[in-house]
Amino acid sequence: MGMFESAEKFEEILAGFFRKMGDTPAIADKLLASGLIIRFNYTDPDLVIVVDCSGDKIDVRPHDTETKSIVEMSMSADTAHRFWFGKVNLTIALTRKEIVAKGPIPKVLKLLPAIKPSYAMYPEYLEANGYGEYNILKK
């Protein structure tokens, strides 16, 4: 079992954080400019979240298995959690197959500078929303 005791808790945390990023213009504007629809497939616990950047605002849809995505990213929930702390190098994780990506990967890699501010936001988000026990930077 990973860090998260349930898919519901992981969804609550991560979907909420994706929505926060979508409400942060410095990040959202660059994601929207990509026009990507990204499906994140998580394991341990299992969860699917679509982050749709194809409209005029970012739409975060947990459990959406119907929308055709442009990019699919598959990883464990713990890998995703460490990623948002800035503790996972995407290129290395892709090489090691800790993260499996399908679709135009160069477009995904181009988004890394856009999401870099989120690495500082994630622990702040956890603390501010009552998820401090998941803050690995405090441990």
Structural overview:
The protein has helices at residues 7-22, 25-34, 77-84, 90-95, 105-110, 112-115, 118-128, and strands spanning 37-43, 47-52, 59-62, 71-76, 99-102. The protein is an alpha+beta fold. The chain is built from seven helices and five strands, in the order H-H-E-E-E-E-H-H-E-H-H-H. A hairpin with a 3-residue loop joins strand 1 (37-43) and strand 2 (47-52). The two termini are 19 Å apart. Helix 1 packs across helix 7.
Mind sketching the topology for me?
Blueprint: H1 7-22, H2 25-34, E1 37-43, E2 47-52, E3 59-62, E4 71-76, H3 77-84, H4 90-95, E5 99-102, H5 105-110, H6 112-115, H7 118-128
Parallel strand pairs: 1-4
Antiparallel strand pairs: 1-2, 2-3, 4-5
Helix pairs in contact: 1-7
Summarize the structure.
By secondary structure, the protein is an alpha+beta fold.
Name the descriptors.
single chain, 139 residues, alpha+beta, five-stranded mixed β-sheet, 7 helices, 19% strand, globular
Into which percentage range does the β-strand content fall? Answer: 15-25%
How would you state the average pLDDT, rounded?
95
Query: Total number of helical segments?
Result: 7
Largest sheet at a glance? Answer: 5 strands, mixed
Going by helix content, strand content and strand pairing, the class is alpha+beta
Our measurement of the CA-to-CA distance between the termini, rounded to an integer number of angstroms, reads 19 Å
Order of helices and strands: HHEEEEHHEHHH
Helix proportion of residues, in percent? 40-55%
The geometry reads as globular
Strand tally is: 5
**Compute the gyration radius: what is it?**
14 Å
How are the strands of the largest sheet arranged?
A: 3-2-1-4-5
Low-confidence stretches: none
